[in-house]
Amino acid sequence: MPKITYLGHSGFVIEGRETSLVIDPFLEGNPLAVAEPSDIKADYVLVTHGHPDHLGDSIAIAKANGATVIAPFELATYCEGKGAKAHPMHIGGGYDFPFGRVKLTIAHHGSAVPGDSGMEYAGSPCGFLVEIDGKNIYHAGDTGLFLDMKLIGELTEIDAALLPVGGNFTMDVDDAVRAVEFLRPKLAVPMHYNTFDVIKADPDDFRKKVEALKRKAAVLKAGESIEI
Ligand code: NI
Ligand code: MN
Questions:
Q1: pLDDT digit string (tens) for 89-101?
Q2: DSSP class of residue 142?
Q3: What is the Å distance from ligand 1's center to 193 Cα?
Q4: 3-state DSSP: the chain helix, strand, coil percent, rounded to 5?
Q5: How many Å lie between the centroid of ligand 2 and the Cα of residue 199?
Q6: What is the CB-side half-sphere exposure of residue 7 using CA atoms within 13 A?
Q7: Which has fewest Cβ within 10 Å: 50, 120, 141, 220?
Q8: 212, exposed or middle or buried, with CB in 10 Å at 0-12, 13-18, 19+?
Q9: Is 64 helix (H, G, I), strand (E, B) or coil?
Q10: Distance of CA 142 from the midpoint of ligand 1 (Å)
Q11: What spacing in Å lies between the alpha carbon of 191 and ligand 1's midpoint?
Q12: Ligand 2 centroid vs 194 CA: distance in angstroms?
């Protein structure tokens, strides 16, 4: 425990002893997804940024479950405006929830939501450090490689790191392998690849390169779970 289930793209369900979290649930319109938004049971919905492949079905899932959205302030406020409960946070801030702690990390990327004139600014994107049932899970969000990952790894003993590997919008496999060197997680899980043509990547290439560093990696198919 806890159990991490991959939803495809950057979506994960994290089930603790008493609480279920979902991060970046992008199911509707995701060609690799095997779950429907109505399948997702969650007490909290964590959203790294406003891009449609991350905000995805977050608001619908939050409303259907009476769940609280945890997101950067601007995006949390947007979700509240759409009728979801929200707990706004921001980069570097941590908060003790009943299930454990969430801290927002930097992510080098953009964040926007659909608006009247195309996309509207939605604040800074983030990554999440989630502490639940004594385990630390790092979801990097969408980001390029950054040296401060070393600091994140120094400050927190990471049990599982969920890292984008698809390139074009984020780190590619080799940058994500470098991220593993910086973060030193017990387990690395690739995400944000093969959903679209421009983010084609070989997750087994990532797994082998992580294993060459004497670290563990797990490649999950959508619907597959791993306990940490
Ligand atoms: Ni994005
Ligand atoms: Mn994305």
A1: 999 999 999 999 9
A2: S
A3: 12
A4: 25, 35, 45
A5: 10
A6: 26
A7: 120
A8: exposed
A9: helix
A10: 5
A11: 12
A12: 12
Nearest to 183 by CA among 221, 226, 220, 136: 136
Domain residue limits, the chain:
3-223
36: its two tokens: 């429907």
Token readout for 223 is: 């619907």
Sequential pLDDT tens for the chain (228 residues): 899 999 999 999 999 999 999 999 999 999 999 999 999 999 999 999 999 999 999 999 999 999 999 999 999 999 999 999 999 999 999 999 999 999 999 999 999 998 888 899 999 999 999 999 999 999 999 999 999 999 999 999 999 999 999 999 999 999 999 999 999 999 999 999 999 999 999 999 999 999 999 999 999 999 999 999
- Residue 143 Cα to ligand 1 midpoint, Å, equals 8
Rounded to 5°, angle at Cα 122 from 97 and 102: 15
Give the CATH number of domain 3-223.
3.60.15.10
Could you say which ligand is closest to the alpha carbon of residue 193?
Answer: 2
- Transcribe 144-197 into DSSP letters: ---TTHHHHHHHS--SEEEEE-B-SSS-BHHHHHHHHHHH--SEEEEES-SSSG
pLDDT digits (tens, 9 = 90+) for 105-156: 999 999 999 888 889 999 999 999 999 999 999 999 999 999 999 999 999 9
Beta bridge partners of 162: 139, 189
